[in-house]
Specification:
Strands 2-1-3-4-5 form a five-stranded mixed beta sheet, with helices on both faces. The protein is about 40% helix and about 20% strand. It has about 140 residues and is of the alpha/beta class. The two termini are about 25 Å apart. It is globular and about 40 Å long.
């Protein structure tokens, strides 16, 4: 069994409706972890905007995984990590670099391609199109 960190993010303050949404997200992910055969060893619950892919909760998530606290992260969907295509790809690259896999309740997803593959398969007009392509693959649960 893989050791898993559940990562939940709700945009906004920790008011009562957001607390209810957070609890719902946590319950769904705990059940998904069980269904996927993942052992939950950590949970990160944050009430913050997802627009900054370099926010402290993401840095901590990557650091703890890098140091062996868990092998994978379970999220509801990629928007919980970042609200932008560029942010999603950036976080995915960092997680890949440290061997941290990402799961949703539907199974394993790839937020960014492995460092050495796929990049030559696509014509990149600019950095934004490249990230958008990989974000689209991530949202559709396609490994690239």
């Amino acid at each position: 069994m893989s050791r898993c960190c559940i990562y939940c993010r709700i945009g906004g303050t920790a008011n009562e409706p957001n607390q209810i949404a957070m609890n719902s997200q946590l319950e769904m992910l705990r059940k998904a972890a069980e269904d996927l055969g993942l052992t939950v060893v950590a949970e990160v619950n944050v009430f913050e905007s997802g627009t900054d892919p370099q926010r402290q909760s993401i840095k901590t998530l990557i650091r703890d995984g890098k140091h062996g606290a868990y092998d994978c992260v379970l999220i509801v969907d990629p928007s919980r990590l970042s609200r932008s295509a560029e942010g999603c790809a950036l976080i995915g690259q960092k997680l890949n670099r440290h061997g941290i896999r990402v799961y949703t309740p539907q199974g394993k997803i790839q937020l960014a391609p492995p460092e050495t593959s796929c990049q030559g398969l696509f014509i990149k007009k600019n950095k934004q199109q490249y990230y958008l392509l990989h974000y689209a693959c991530c949202v559709c649960h396609l490994a690239v």
